[in-house]
Amino acid sequence: MTPRLFMDVLLTAGAVVDLDADRAHYLRDVLRLQADAGVMLFNGRDGEWRSTVQAVAKRSMTLQVAAQTRRPEAEPDLWLCFAPIKRARLDFIAEKATELGVCRLQPVITQHTIVERVNVDRLRANAVEAAEQTERLTVPEIGTPVALAALVAGWPSDRHLLLADETGGGRPVADVLADLDDQARAAPWAVLTGPEGGFTRTELDLVRRLAHVHAVGLGPRILRADTAALSALSVWQAIVGDWRRATPRRWPDYATTTMQA
After folding, report:
1. CA 112 to CA 201: how far, in whole Å?
2. Which end of the chain has a smaller Cβ tally under 10 Å, C or N?
3. Mean pLDDT across the stretch 136-152?
4. Angstrom distance (rounded) from CA 136 to CA 19
5. What is 120-144 written as a DSSP string?
6. What is the pLDDT of residue 246?
7. Domains in the chain, number
């Protein structure tokens, strides 16, 4: 199987890429790669490239980029804004939201948020691993945590927002999305979900003042915060996003192995 790695470096034919000790260890000692073995690379900007192992040392490895195998592709402009939860569930959100195609993960501090310290580097590591595994060409941006009031104050005027309202004040999410006109479907979007204790009435009223907010319900059951976020993303992708495109491409010349965090 051919490994696939995210490398934040310029990728072009003939370029030489030096791996750090951790990635070199993974390829050399875990996957047992030797000289001339293939490695797929992507950087979030230049598509995907095939490379080969040129040199293997005790604590380093050098790759040479050979040829582009996939060009950059348009992706949905979809954010996930979420109240931080316990670490294991937060890792799960970062991983699955990346698989579901979000372009930004934005932690939001609300009145009922219990976990206020967020390890942004850990979130990014989970997002990178998910992007490697799913053959995605980009990695979501990871925002630093912001208070809900600050998020609303700086909200882009053209970005539509699905507000997960667990109080029953919203229409079914599938109905809301199905009724959108073409202009709204083409707009940038975001999903906002609250903490395990939910939003306060004051917070809901604050968010509802935004120009393009759509308060939605996610069914008759109370969902965990991570389940709510991924459910809303899935419905959006199915009705508005890129799930309407053809099934995922499969590349017969290689299978994918990714570096585990």
Report:
1. 12
2. N
3. 97
4. 21
5. HHHHHHHHHHHHHHTT-S---EEPP
6. 64
7. 2
Instruction: Report the chain's mean pLDDT, rounded to a whole number.
Output: 92
Torsion sign, CA atoms 197, 124, 93, 158: positive
Q: First vs last Cα of the chain: how many Å apart?
A: 19
Average pLDDT over residues 100-128: 94
Please tell me the distance from the alpha carbon of residue 240 to that of residue 181, in angstroms, as a whole number.
11
Helix axes 120-133, 87-99, angle to 10 degrees: 40
Shared domain check, 212 and 93: yes
Nearest to 188 by CA among 103, 99, 248, 92: 103
SS3 196: coil
Strand intervals (E) in 32-168: 38-42, 48-56, 61-70, 78-82, 104-109, 141-142, 146-147, 160-164
- Cβ–Cβ under 8 Å, residues 237 and 76: yes
d(CA 35, CA 105): 38
CA quadruple 185, 78, 190, 237: dihedral sign: positive
The model's pLDDT over 29-64, given as tens digits with 9 standing for 90+, comes to 899 999 999 999 999 999 999 999 998 887 889 999
Are 1 and 37 a contacting pair, CB within 8 Å? no
Which two structure tokens, joined as six digits, stand for 174? 């599938």
In which domain, by residue range, is 144 found?
Answer: 78-244
What CATH number should be reported for the domain holding residue 109?
A: 3.40.1280.10
Query: Distance between CA atoms of 31 and 258, rounded to whole angstroms?
Result: 10
